[in-house]
User: What shape does this take?
Amino acid sequence: MVIRESVPLAPLTTLGVGGPARFFVEAQEADHVCQAVGWARERRLPVFVLGGGSNLVVSDAGFPGLVLQPGIRGISSRKEGARIFFTVGAGEDWDAFVGHAVSCNCAGIECLSGIPGTAGAAPVQNIGAYGQEAGSVIDRVDALEIVTGARTTLDSRRCAFGYRQSIFNTGEAGRWVILQVTFTLQPEGAPLVAYKDLQEHFGSSQPTLAEVREAVRQIRNRKGMLLVEGEEDARSAGSFFKNPVLTTRQYSALQRLLRERGDPAIPAYPAGDSLHKISAAWLIEQAGFAKGYARGRVGISRKHALALVNLGGATAAEVMALKSEIQSTVRRRFGIDLHPEPILLGFEETHG
Assistant: This one.
């Protein structure tokens, strides 16, 4: 285990902005994670856990503590009853694991194909796409508590998964280092074809898991949401804003406002318990920010209105300025607050 100093973080993120980590370590084994956390604790340094850097904005000042990147690898499986349990090291590439599960003819995460990052990062944001969420198939998370150095197992209920959230990015953010994650999948299960994009792609045919995985990757690529070397629209942190979830009362008020203005209907999806998830991309475009909008060295993807892209040489401050411009304009026009989806690291103020 080698702890390095003043390591640039921008090259370790897909957005490509931000300053250095004061200290940086890549831990290939659980014991190395323990050692690194103990080293930081002795020096009273804050610790940040870096996954694949695909859902992260680093401030221009960087991070004043230890950035720890777990590189723990390995995928094992076991069958129990009608389910198969896959235990995956935190450093495994997420999309590669999805491909492995699909090749084993196991359903439950095929619609999460093409999402960049690591398996250890999947529980943090409770990654989701096309009707599936990681949290719905996570059985448990093995983690190390930073303050005590103790290892523990957190079951799915303890992780408190919600829309793009868990304990790892809300009330207990910064408390844990995820070591490995166990997923429970359905062998020979049918693929999920619930969202419009996939339904239009397949029509009335009954696709296989592998066909759904490939279709999801194709759709993500068309939207600039698949990491492709040299692709300008891929220099992003993925979807920058969460889709707002409204109560029935809030949703009805928004619908009235749109009718009064003669605006088109907003795309919306049921979110359970009389809640409605509405399209952040629609709000952004209707507020006047078209795909391809540029503001200096940052802009909006030419393929997807939710992605803010680094057009070349951008700073974190420029990214945050565009973020704020979009938020204030959407709030002024629709009365809706957009909340960022990526982790914002090293910023002195809380950016909502």
About this structure: The two ends are 36 Å apart (CA to CA). The first strand starts at residue 4 and ends at 8.
